[in-house]
Design a protein that fits this description.
CATH architecture of the domain at 36-89 in chain B: Up-down Bundle
Shape of chain B: elongated
CATH superfamily of the domain at 36-89 in chain B: F1F0 ATP synthase subunit C
Largest sheet of chain B: none
Order of helices and strands of chain B: HHH
Helix content of chain A: 55-70%
Low-confidence stretches of chain B: none
Number of strands of chain B: 0
Radius of gyration of chain A: 25 Å
Oligomer: heterodimer
CATH class of the domain at 36-89 in chain B: Mainly Alpha
Structural class of chain A: mainly alpha
Largest sheet of chain A: 2 strands, antiparallel
Strand content of chain B: under 5%
Largest interface: A-B, 18 and 15 residues
Strand order of the largest sheet of chain A: 1-2
Distance between the termini of chain B: 35 Å
Number of strands of chain A: 4
Structural class of chain B: mainly alpha
Mean pLDDT of chain B: 83
Number of helices of chain B: 3
Mean pLDDT of chain A: 86
Shape of chain A: globular
Number of domains of chain A: 2
Order of helices and strands of chain A: HEEHHHEEHHHH
Chain lengths: 302, 89
């Protein structure tokens, strides 16, 4: 009973605080100036235009470079100073290495293919993981809003992730998509590979029915392009949007300051959820599905 | 019933923004229902399986996360298409 009344008093006090804030600050009307989509706009820092091709350096490029550099240097650095008695970082990295080697790669394809494709899948996992994780560290990248510190204009701190932009997951997906087809053709031969798309057990079917099923399989292979890229992109983008709206965006947009008292603690909960689960899980899913696709393209039975 | 104030309030711009708002609401809302049922089903079945065969727990764990992420992504597909309709059209 005592704990219960404590919880009730706490919740009641919190609600009373929100209501008091609502009464003090009131509703200042809908804010037309704040545009949430501008938080994801790519400002051109170094404009590079080749004809109609836009190769400008923007914050997505910065995050891409940081993620690639972290992937390369962190892994090389840790592998150079491997010790007999591992410290905490080495243990964690060995755990992740073991996950990519035995679980993701080894569990989904035969040994010969796994040996050949493990470096690619491991790099894919660590690159997406670093890319997702640095997306939750605030960096001074928001050049649209600058903060004046002793006469020096520095960009405001903001979070962004390379994977929250559709281009990067799409490129990764295209690399995966082309490579699993190439690997399948290499393993089985050109016509045998496409024939293996048909599920087993159709030997007595008419050619017309086989063609219809083949068409469905073709569509499903193209849908993989969308599902694999949009899954990663949408998860990270939705996470960042949730953090943006809960961490004050909703209160600013609607002009109700009291709403911030209610949504701000939720932002912490979502931050922990995103960093603790979604960032790692999406890297895991992307590389696992890649392994499944490569394994499916090379395995003897469908 | 006199509907002329309603008819006067209906503008092309108003219809367009109402359509966008409905797209976002229906997209995010209905998508979440399906994915919510799916995620609940996966975790429920996993609990059931572990209760039946506790020795399979470690093997089921990775399959569970795979299923969870695949199902959960469905909610985000609808959410993203709703956002595209809301902000980019």
């Amino acid at each position: 009973m005592k704990t219960r009344s404590k919880v009730l008093i706490g919740l009641g006090g919190y609600l009373a605080l929100a209501i008091a804030m609502l009464l003090i600050f009131g509703n200042s009307g809908k804010n037309e100036e704040f545009k949430p989509q501008n938080e994801f706009k790519l400002e051109e820092w170094v404009p590079i235009h080749l004809g109609s091709l836009d190769l400008s350096i923007n914050k997505a490029v910065l995050y891409l470079v940081i993620a690639s550099a972290l992937t390369i240097f962190a892994m090389t650095w840790i592998s150079r100073r491997m010790a007999q008695k591992p410290n905490r970082v080495q243990t964690a990295v060995e755990l992740a290495y073991d996950l990519t080697k035995n679980n993701i790669t080894g569990g989904n394809m035969d040994t010969a293919t796994a040996t050949r494709w493990f470096p690619f899948l491991g790099a894919l996992f660590f690159f997406i993981w670093f890319s997702n994780m640095i997306g939750f560290i605030p960096l001074p990248i928001n050049t649209e809003h600058t903060v004046n510190v002793f006469g020096l204009e520095i960009p405001a701190f903001a979070i962004y992730a390379a994977t929250a932009n559709i281009s990067i997951p799409l490129v990764l997906t295209l690399v995966v998509w082309i490579s699993y087809h190439v690997e399948g053709i290499r393993a089985k031969g050109f016509f045998a590979y496409f024939a293996s798309w048909l599920p087993p057990g159709l030997e007595e079917m008419s050619p017309f029915g086989k063609a219809a099923i083949f068409l469905i399989e073709v569509i499903s292979h193209f849908v993989r392009l969308i599902s694999l890229s949009v899954r990663l992109f949408a998860n990270i983008l939705a996470g960042h949007l949730l953090l943006l709206f809960m961490g004050g965006g909703l209160a600013v947009l609607l002009g109700i300051a009291a709403l911030g008292t209610l949504t701000f603690p939720l932002a912490f909960a979502f931050f922990i959820f995103e960093v603790g689960l979604v960032a790692t899980l999406q890297a895991f899913i992307f590389s696992t599905l890649t392994a499944i696709y490569i394994g499916g393209a090379t395995s003897a039975s469908h | 019933m006199d509907l002329s104030p309603v008819a006067a309030a209906v503008t092309d711009e108003g219809v367009k923004s109402a359509g966008k708002a409905i797209a976002l609401g229906v997209g995010a809302g209905l998508g979440s229902i399906g994915a919510g049922i799916g995620v609940g089903f996966i975790f429920g079945k996993e609990i059931e399986s572990v209760a039946r065969q506790p020795e399979m727990k470690s093997e089921l764990e990775s399959i569970r996360w795979l299923g969870f992420a695949l199902t959960e992504a469905v909610a985000f597909y609808t959410f993203i298409f709703g956002l595209i309709a809301f902000f980019l059209s």
